[in-house]
Amino acid sequence: MTRNDATDRTIVPIFDFMNRIPGGLMLIPLVLGSIVGTFAMPALEIGSFTTALFKDGALALIALLIFATGTHVTARTSGPVLAHAAVILTAKSLIPATAVVLLGLAVGIDGIAGVSILALLVAVDNSNGGLWLAFTGRYGDKRDRGAYVSSAVNDGPFLSMVFLGVSGLAAIPGTLLLAAIVPFVLGMLVGNLDPKWRDVMRSTPSIVIPFFAFALGTGIDLGNVVRGGASGLLVGAIVAPFTGALVYFGYRHVLRRGAKSGIGFAAGTTAGNAIATPAIVGAADPQFAPYVETATAQVAASALITAILAPLIASWVLKRQGGLTVVDEEGREIGEGKEGSPADGPAAPDSDGDGDGDGDGDDRDVRL
C-alpha cells in the first residue's frame, strides 16, 4: 500500500451510506439539522462562519444550486425544460390547490378531521425544490433538474395567497416570483455564453445539498412536528402519494417519460419554508388567525414526513419500472440502481472534468 492509499482510505463510508438512501444526500442532513435545531440551537448561533454555514446559509446555497442548474439549460433544451416545469406546476400545485379550495367552499375554512383548509392548502400547493434537485440530480436529466423553476412559482406563500385571494384576500407579491427565478435565468445566460461554466458547476449539487439541507432542517422544530400529532402525519401521508401521483401521471402520459416517469413522485413534498406560510396568511386575513398555530404544526409535520416518503415512493416506482438508473445531463445512463452499483454510491472519479467519470477527456460513456 502506498502512502497516498493509506492517507485516502475511507474509514467510515459516510457519502456512500447517504447515497444508498433515496434522497439521502438531503434527507439525512435535514433530519440531523432538525434535531440540532430543536435541542441545541444555541450551538449554531455563536456567530461568524458557523452560524453562516449551518443556520443562515440555506438560501444562498440553494440560489447557487439554482444558478448551476440554469447553466445546463441551453436554448435547444429550454422548450422541454419549460414543458416539464409546466406539468409539475399544474399537477403538484394547481390541481391539488383547486381541489382544496373547492373543499373549503363545501365545508368551510374549518376543514375536515381537525385539519383546516389553511393547513391543507399550504401543505399541497408547494414542493421541496431542494429535495427535487437532489433526487433528479441522481436519477433525472437536465429537463428534470431544470424543471426546478416550477418551485420558483409554488414556493412560499405566493400560490396560497393567490388561491385564497379568490375570496378577496391579500395582495400578490409578484416581486418574490421575480427574485426566485433570477439566479436560474442568469445561469442559463452564462451557460449559453460560455459552456465551460457547465463543467465548473457540474459538482455543485453534491457539494451544496447536504449543507443547505442541514440549514433548512434547523428551521423545523420537532416540537411542532409532535404537536401536529396524528393530523400532521395524516396530512403528510396524503400529500406525498396523492400529489406525487398527479405529477407521475403527467410525466407518463403528457411528457411520455416511460420508465423514468416515477421521478414525478419526488415532487410530492411540502417545502420546509412553507411552515411560515400560515402565519403570513393569518396576518393578511384575521379570519384565518385562529388556525395559524395548529396549521403551522401540521405543515411542519407534513414537511418532514413528505421529505421521507416522496423519495422512497419515487425510488420504488422507478425500480419496478426499470428506471432506477443514474444518468447524466443528457439522459445517458451511467449506472444501474442495483445493489453494489454506482447508483448506490458516488459516481466514479472524474479526473478529466467532462462529467462521465472515465477520465479520458471524452464526454461519451465507455461501455464494456
If you had to describe this structure to a student in words, what would you say it looks like?
By secondary structure, the chain is mostly helical. The chain is 62% helix and 2% strand. It is built from 18 helices and two strands. It has helices at residues 3-8, 14-20, 24-39, 41-44, 48-54, 58-71, 78-107, 117-124, 129-139, 142-146, 149-154, 158-164, 174-193, 196-200, 204-217, 222-254, 277-284, 292-320; strands spanning 325-327, 333-336. Strands 1-2 form a two-stranded antiparallel ribbon. A hairpin with a 5-residue loop joins strand 1 (325-327) and strand 2 (333-336). The protein starts with a helix and ends in a 32-residue tail after the last strand. Residues 167-172 and 336-368 have low confidence and may be disordered.
